[in-house]
Design brief:
Blueprint: H1 24-27, H2 34-39, E1 43-48, E2 57-61, E3 64-70, E4 76-80, E5 94-95, E6 100-101, E7 108-109, E8 115-117, H3 123-132, E9 137-138, E10 140-143, E11 146-150, E12 171-180, H4 184-189, H5 196-199, E13 218-224, E14 227-236, E15 239-248, E16 252-254, E17 267-271, E18 274-282, E19 285-295, H6 308-314, H7 322-327, H8 331-336, H9 354-371, E20 392-397, H10 407-423, H11 429-447
Antiparallel strand pairs: 1-11, 2-3, 3-4, 4-9, 5-6, 6-7, 7-8, 10-11, 12-19, 13-14, 14-15, 15-16, 15-20, 16-18, 17-20, 18-19
Length: 448
């Protein structure tokens, strides 16, 4: 074998050293960790209503083992997994009219963790136990098929946030969950990485959404309070397609439709295909809990099938063979392939990653604020009574004017599009649709 065929200028594997140390400040989510403490100051979805039957279920959220149940009165409870008596698991407990009873010695707890009964004890001892012992419990809210919990200090519990996307009329919202075997930040990064749709979902395996997604387009990023928005503005023939990916700190995400738009047909102010939270299970596992949105302003109703939410979430169905995942990878393959916790020091971020850099910076600031005893920044309710959101897509007919490099023009159009949405923040949804629609038509006319 002639080894001279190998260039001495390449093959740098031996000289390339990689860090093995993750960014713990952003990736560790368990109790008492800086990021875990920050995340615990917010409401998160933890389970699907339809998956909870008459028996308790175990789950892990933010590194903590929990049991979720519905007592016989219909009240939900989310409690620590272990009974404080002898640490038996309450997944085997019995749901009572109020609360849950441990299978081992019959200790009975209400949904707020209050000890109601400790059988077999002298009356005076039982009374003292009721005053002294509590089962760890968290507040729970059920909303349109998703079960949410707040796991932070009870004195700091905020109002349950209602985003406008949670109240759209004529939209069928289908709850779903998507598991990822990796750290939460790897899953969330993708929402502020518009470029990945042009390759992962278009030019690597099969075309998972539409041909228009394969256009790279112009990328602009916007910061607004606790929002970070990535706008990919694509030229598709005689049309300009604005696709807005949205993050509301810490982990609420939306994007444009998956199947309703391909850039070829005019579309005014379409909204997100999903309304989604990226919820850490522990440091190495994540759940996306969400609604897939079907309707005139979401994805077409014909995609409302058992597989539809999975395709919307990651471009492919979840249960596939290894060969199928290699031939047409989706978001799970891309994010899990980085390892259970990716090491940021080994990355080489470039201009298209500016949204990711902004998100990490803002998260770090908020984590440190909580560490210093401050309250985290939260999304504000507008005069409409709801929190406005911006994820979605719009396609306007704006013919090319002869400039082969129109990136500056596309960027200016993206800024104009976002500004008209901001101006409509305080309007109710009907008024907002009318206002933004009129502004978009004016923009289209002015640039034609």
């Amino acid at each position: 074998m002639n080894v001279e065929q190998f260039s001495l200028k390449g093959y740098a594997g031996y000289e390339t050293s990689l860090s093995e140390h993750p960014d713990e400040e952003l990736t560790q989510v368990g109790p008492k960790t800086p990021c875990g403490e920050y995340l615990r100051r917010f409401w998160h979805p933890v389970y699907l209503t339809n998956d909870l039957c008459d028996l308790p279920v175990t789950l892990k959220i933010l590194g903590e083992e929990l049991v979720l149940f519905r007592d016989l009165s219909g009240t939900l409870g989310l409690v620590h997994k272990r009974c404080p008596h002898r640490q038996a698991s309450l997944e085997y407990g019995k749901c009572e009219e109020h609360g849950i009873r441990c299978c081992y010695h019959g200790w009975h707890f209400d949904t707020d963790g209050k000890l109601l009964d400790a059988p077999g004890q002298p009356e005076n001892l039982s009374d003292r136990l009721k005053l002294r012992i509590k089962l760890g419990a968290y507040p729970v809210v059920e909303y349109k098929g998703l079960i949410f919990s707040y796991m932070g200090p009870i004195a700091e519990m905020p109002e349950f946030p209602v985003f406008d996307a949670m109240e759209f009329e004529k939209m069928e919202m289908v709850p779903y969950k998507a598991p990822f075997r990796c750290n939460w930040l790897q899953v969330q990064d993708a929402i502020l990485d518009p470029l990945h749709t042009s390759f992962l979902h278009s030019n690597i395996g099969r075309m998972q959404f539409s041909k228009g997604f394969g256009e790279v387009g112009q990328m602009d990023f916007f910061e607004r309070d606790v929002w970070i928005l990535g706008v990919n503005t694509r030229r598709v023939g005689e049309n300009v397609w604005f696709r807005v990916n949205e993050l509301v700190l810490p982990n609420f995400t939306q994007a444009g439709s998956a199947f309703a738009a391909d850039g070829t047909l005019r579309r005014l102010y379409g909204r997100s295909s999903f309304t989604r939270w990226v919820v850490p299970v522990d440091d190495e596992n994540t759940l996306a809990l969400a609604w897939a949105n079907f309707g005139e302003r979401g994805d077409p109703p014909e995609w409302n099938t058992p597989e539809g939410p999975e395709l919307i979430e990651q471009g492919e169905v979840f249960d596939r063979t290894y060969e199928e995942r290699q031939r047409s990878p989706g978001d799970a393959e891309a994010t899990e392939g980085m390892g259970r916790i990716t090491v940021h020091k080994n990355e080489n971020l470039v201009s298209s990653d500016r949204g990711i850099a902004l998100m990490r910076k803002r998260l770090r600031e908020q984590i440190r604020a909580v560490q210093n005893g401050k309250s985290p920044a939260r999304a504000s309710v507008a005069n409409s009574g709801l929190i406005p959101t911006y994820g979605g897509d719009t396609v306007l007919r704006i013919p090319l004017k002869g400039d082969p490099d129109e990136s500056q023009t596309l960027s200016e159009l993206a800024h104009a599009f976002m500004e008209m949405q901001y101006q409509a923040d305080d309007l109710n949804e009907d008024e907002r649709v009318r206002f933004v629609g009129e502004k978009l038509t004016e923009l289209e006319t002015k640039t034609t």
